[in-house]
């Protein structure tokens, strides 16, 4: 059973169009390169799809090999092709033959861009024995990942792909559009850092707005402050809340049902545009990344809407991305915040689930989180009866805002 599975997704292919729409032409190419690689053809099947809306249909085909198979599918309207080569290595190691076949086909199709995957299969004691390897990119050249033993939930919502995975190390883990959001084991890194620096710097936050945050973790942290009277959670995708209620109780601890919480399933920009009063002491943008449906909420215009509804002494908090892997994004978002708020304080924390040191920012007209002493933070934690935190404490508060030089260079100067 041991073998090598190679896949390649090709885009903007500049090859002869017949390779995308003519099954015979495509089959001839695949047969030749398969035999050239030293693999053994035993059967094949090809199908050309009919024209659709005046455009030629694509081709799906498979070569059955004594060593396993070659499968491919074409999308002529996109200049796209997916390739799938699998060889078993039972009697001999066929890996080099698989590599040769895939590379020959890639060269023939002349893609503009390509995505590749390589998977070793069939060894019960091999790298796949400890679970499904799930990878996430940090940028165009860096990836990281984890292995998960179980997939508890997966569906396509109206806005995104939603998954709940589980592993012994991370526990239940929420993933949206192939990006890790939160896990039972490490959620405290992000949620405590998102909530408590601003909440503790504030004398007595009473009203808060969370935009996004459908996992409920930010709600849970806010509710630890006894002065909180009302929290509005505005989440675009109600199915995230549903999944959190079902699978992520160890993250939100029932916060959705607290009488101080009002949950609204709607677009955050529309909610802010309709808001009339400057009544929010804290606004937390607990969002997916800027390239997702949350993109319009990472703009100067939306930050100005947030500023409009902040009460005196209030603060806006959001994450900016990873300053090492996404410096341009961090700089641009910080500049957009600085164009609206006189005070923009960057801070950071390493988040295991995100695979790197992560940038956040606290923006305000007048609240300075760096001006409060550790002794005062300690006193407020005691006065508010906040215990059981796993990351945040009085000493960590100041350390969060102590930026390494490469990150500091990305941030604008604070206008006091």
TrEMBL record:
Pathway: Amine and polyamine biosynthesis; spermidine biosynthesis; spermidine from putrescine: step 1/1. InterPro entries: AdoMetDC_C (IPR042286), AdoMetDC_fam_prok (IPR003826), AdoMetDC_N (IPR042284), PABS (IPR030374), PABS_CS (IPR030373), S-AdoMet_deCO2ase_core (IPR016067), SAM-dependent_MTases_sf (IPR029063), Spermi_synthase (IPR001045). The active site is at 286 (proton acceptor). It holds the Pfam family Spermine_synth. Gene3D superfamilies: 3.30.160.750, S-adenosylmethionine decarboxylase domain, Spermidine synthase, tetramerisation domain, Vaccinia Virus protein VP39. Keywords: Autocatalytic cleavage, Decarboxylase, Lyase, Polyamine biosynthesis, Pyruvate, Schiff base, Spermidine biosynthesis, Transferase, Zymogen. Its EC number is 2.5.1.16. Signal peptide: none annotated. It comes from the Bacteria. S-methyl-5'-thioadenosine binds at residues 160, 235, 267-268, 296. It catalyses: S-adenosyl 3-(methylsulfanyl)propylamine + putrescine = S-methyl-5'-thioadenosine + spermidine + H(+). Residues 130-365 form the PABS domain. GO terms for biological process: spermidine biosynthetic process. Spermidine binds at residues 191, 215. GO terms for molecular function: adenosylmethionine decarboxylase activity; spermidine synthase activity. NCBIfam families: PRK00811.1. Catalyzes the irreversible transfer of a propylamine group from the amino donor S-adenosylmethioninamine (decarboxy-AdoMet) to putrescine (1,4-diaminobutane) to yield spermidine. Homodimer or homotetramer. HAMAP family: Spermidine_synth. Belongs to the spermidine/spermine synthase family. This is Polyamine aminopropyltransferase. It comes from Allopusillimonas soli. The lineage of its organism: Bacteria, Pseudomonadati, Pseudomonadota, Betaproteobacteria, Burkholderiales.
């Amino acid at each position: 059973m041991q073998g090598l599975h190679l896949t390649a997704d090709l885009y903007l292919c500049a090859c002869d169009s017949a390779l995308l729409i003519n099954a015979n032409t495509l089959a001839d190419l695949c047969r030749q390169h398969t035999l050239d690689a030293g693999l053994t053809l035993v059967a094949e099947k090809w199908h050309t799809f009919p024209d659709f809306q005046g455009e030629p249909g694509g081709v799906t085909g498979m070569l059955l090999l004594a060593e396993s198979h070659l499968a491919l599918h074409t999308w002529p309207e996109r200049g796209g092709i997916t390739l799938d080569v699998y060889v078993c290595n039972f009697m001999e190691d066929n890996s080099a033959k698989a590599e040769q076949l895939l590379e020959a086909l890639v060269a023939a199709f002349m893609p503009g861009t390509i995505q590749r995957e390589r998977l070793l299969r069939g060894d019960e004691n091999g790298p796949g024995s400890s679970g499904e390897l799930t990878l996430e990119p940090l940028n165009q050249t860096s990836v990281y990942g984890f292995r998960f033993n179980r997939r508890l939930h997966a569906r396509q919502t109206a806005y995104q792909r939603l998954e709940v995975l589980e592993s012994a190390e991370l526990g239940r883990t929420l993933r949206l559009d192939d990006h890790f959001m939160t896990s039972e084991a490490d959620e405290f890194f992000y949620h405590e850092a998102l909530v408590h620096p601003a909440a503790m710097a504030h004398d007595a936050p009473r009203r808060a707005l969370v935009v996004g945050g459908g996992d409920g973790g930010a709600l849970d942290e806010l509710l630890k402050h006894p002065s909180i009277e009302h929290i509005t959670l505005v989440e675009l995708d109600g199915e995230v809340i549903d999944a959190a209620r079902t699978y992520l109780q160890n993250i939100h601890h029932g916060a959705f049902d607290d009488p101080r919480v009002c949950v609204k399933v709607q677009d955050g920009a529309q909610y802010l545009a309709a808001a009339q009063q400057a009544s929010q002491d804290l606004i937390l943008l607990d969002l997916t990344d800027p390239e997702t449906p949350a993109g319009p909420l990472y703009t100067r215009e939306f930050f100005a809407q947030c500023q409009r509804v902040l009460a005196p002494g209030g603060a806006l908090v959001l994450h900016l991305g990873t300053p090492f892997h996404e410096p341009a994004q961090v700089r641009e978002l910080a500049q957009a915040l600085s164009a609206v708020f006189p005070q923009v304080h960057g801070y950071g924390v390493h988040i295991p689930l995100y695979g790197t040191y992560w940038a956040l920012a606290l923006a305000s007209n007048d609240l300075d989180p760096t001006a409060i002493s550790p002794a005062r933070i300690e006193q407020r934690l005691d006065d508010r009866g906040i215990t059981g935190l796993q990351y945040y404490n009085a000493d960590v508060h100041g350390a969060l805002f102590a930026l390494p030089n490469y990150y500091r260079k990305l941030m604008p100067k604070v206008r006091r």
